[in-house]
Amino acid sequence: MNIFNFTHKGLRLALSRLTVLSGKTDVTNEASLSALKNLTKEVVNLLDIHAHAEDSIILPALEEKAPGSTARILADHKTLDKSISVFASQVAAMTPNSPAAQSASVYTSLFNFFANYIIHMAMEEHDINRLIWEHFTDDEIMAWQGQIMAGFTPDQILSFYKYMIPALNPFEQKILLGGFKSNAPTDFFDSVMNMLEQQLSESEYSQLRSMLS
Questions:
Q1: Which residues contact 73 (CB under 8 A, 6 or more apart)?
Q2: Nearest to residue 87, comparing CAs of 105, 100, 67?
Q3: At residue 126, does pLDDT exceed 90?
Q4: Taking the alpha carbons of 196, 197, 202, 207 in that order, is the dihedral positive or negative?
Q5: What angle do CA 195, 9, 92 make, to 5 degrees?
Q6: End-to-end CA distance of the chain
Q7: Going by C-beta distance under 8 Å and a sequence separation of 6 or more, which residues neighbour residue 157?
Q8: Same structural domain for residues 144 and 188?
Q9: Contact at 8 Å (CB) between 2 and 80?
Q10: Within 10 Å of residue 35's Cβ, how many Cβ atoms?
Q11: Alpha carbon of 48 to those of 24, 29, 85, 156: distances in Å?
Q12: Helix (H, G, I), strand (E, B) or coil at 68
């Protein structure tokens, strides 16, 4: 089991959308700037939640089995957290009267973070997964997934699925949402599907509904 795969696909989509929006935002327009600030808060929150899940559940277990193996990833997390915090602070400080140079600086900060974060995710999916598969069974990895999901609030699940589900292929969508449908309250599952109807094309949503029926 690749415990990083689904979440990383979603984060790549979220960061891609944020990068595009940051590049084209009209900072002199209140509504345009507000959209950037709102998406920044949403994406930064997802990044924080994901890093916390790794730092509190996955990495301690791996460090116990393979001492010293998590030093690089923990150092990366600290560096990346500082980097995205700079970007978030820059966005929060922007006003319609901010100079054009500030907008360019904000975009550069995000682009540099995204470039480094892609490298970080690749390292996790290659190097860290190799260690995980060496020391843990699929059942143990699935138990981590259960712990992570149990710590999410309904709003956090909605935020993750907003980006994760559209980033997955149909087979992956069926695996993730099929299991979610079996365990979530019906009204909450319906809330997730209503949200996804706004995120997917009509044909994609119809296919998803058909797979889960």
A1: 54, 59, 120, 123, 124, 128
A2: 105
A3: yes
A4: positive
A5: 70
A6: 25
A7: 149, 192
A8: no
A9: no
A10: 14
A11: 25, 29, 10, 11
A12: coil
Q: The CATH number of the domain where 53 resides is what?
A: 1.20.120.520
Task: With H, G, I as helix, E, B as strand and everything else as coil, classify residue 24.
Answer: helix
Residue 10 lies in a domain: yes
- The rounded distance, in Å, linking the Cα atoms of 111 and 34 is 20
Instruction: Give just the sign of the alpha carbon dihedral 99, 100, 106, 112.
Output: negative
Residue range 39-79, pLDDT digits in tens: 999 999 999 999 999 999 999 999 999 999 999 999 999 99
- Structure-derived torsion over alpha carbons of residues 68, 73, 79, 85, reported in degrees to the nearest 10: -130
Is residue 157, in this structure, part of any structural domain at all? no
DSSP category for residue 169: -
34 and 116, same domain (yes or no): yes
Rg of the chain over CA atoms, in angstroms? 18
CB 98 within 8 A of CB 26: no
Structure tokens at 20: 């595009």
Q: Cβ(65)–Cβ(81) under 8 Å?
A: no
Residues above pLDDT 90, as percent of the chain: 93
Residue type, 82: K
User: 142 and 210 in one domain?
Assistant: no
CA distance 113 to 104: 14
